[in-house]
């Protein structure tokens, strides 16, 4: 259907054509990270964030495009400028535009809009809502191309944020044929960036160096594509991620170099939220170096910025980093308060994996915790992280469990004895066995029941894992691959 309308000023384009051209140009600038330029392009139709665009005289289909475009820009710019309720405003605008495409059964454009709404939920930290919307969108979309690639990438990003790294890896690896056909540099760069993130998180002691080196190469590929896409925001993100890998490899001096470059890029576009993210990473590097006073100051600044951003997952991460710095400086009360604040912030948006990481960090970093505090924190962490994936998390849980057992074994104070007399404690040993069983079951599922490979994933010997299953988790015997007797050599 050809859209016609009165001429717009002296331009040869109609009003509808001019509006569509502005939307396309604005989103191209968004893809390059030029949010100020995108806002300027749309200014004739849209004055400022929080206001509706001017739709008078536009065809219904063009109005839908303008609403979705303005909603997308509201989400990105609102995130950058820490604008309160920006994501809610963005969701409403995009939803209004999407209803037109639902009414005419344009599945591709409806799906693209749903993916954008899902990303608004992701920015708020509402990971379950984001996952649901993206999954529903992908189920409706049957054609391949940029729309499907973007939706898949965002689903992988959500799964990483939820600590479900195996799921994110499956999304990326299962769809290699699709991504290999994409010509959009921003999308290809995002694919390499997310794949590197998965490699980092799935590294085990046996393959750690190999996986981290592969992650570095993948990040470098991402940077190349983002440079071709002229996207400063994503380049800053990649350099921040490289800094994190170098921290894991104990190459602190190189990490600081990449983080300085990332910070310079973020500052060049006045992106305070991204600068705070980079400062959070820098604080982690400083903690690894033992420069705790500097780390505490840098982490504290990141928390102050992110507290105003509305991005609760980022704030929870920064609070955990700040809590670790405070704990290692011996500022126990401040650290405990900060970890508890991180838990509360994450719970507000149902980001339970972040709440679990904060509770686990509280147990790891604070000594001489009261029995009930240590017990409660470990119990909640095991509950909230039950669906999380990654070898490093298993290692941390094992160490935390030993620490909690030591706390429970010590002699009770008079106050603690009174507390236990009137408040029946939950069975921590039962809770630990439940969590151990879940980890073993997950490892067996990933290896199709092959005990040797499952043991390797859990950093156990074959004999140790066999003993654990036969002695403590007989219900999992059915998940093992049956042992096949070898024929005797002739």
Please, could you describe this protein's structure?
This protein has 24 helices and no strands. By secondary structure, the protein is an all-alpha fold. It has a domain of 64 residues. Helix 5 packs parallel to helix 7, helix 7 runs parallel beside helix 10 and helix 19 packs antiparallel against helix 20.
What is the secondary structure topology, with strand pairs?
Blueprint: H1 15-31, H2 35-42, H3 60-80, H4 86-103, H5 107-124, H6 127-140, H7 146-161, H8 165-174, H9 176-179, H10 185-202, H11 208-228, H12 232-248, H13 252-268, H14 272-289, H15 292-306, H16 312-328, H17 332-348, H18 352-365, H19 371-384, H20 391-409, H21 414-422, H22 428-446, H23 451-457, H24 462-472
Class by helix and strand content? mainly alpha
Low-pLDDT residue spans = 1-10, 424-428, 483-490
**DSSP helical segment count:** 24
Shape: globular
How would you sum up the major sheet?
none
Order of helices and strands: HHHHHHHHHHHHHHHHHHHHHHHH
State the helical fraction. Answer: over 70%
Write a concise keyword list for the protein shown above.
0% strand; 73% helix; disordered C terminus; 490 residues; disordered N terminus; mainly alpha
Provide a quick synopsis of the model.
The chain contains 24 helices and no strands. It has 490 residues and is mainly α.
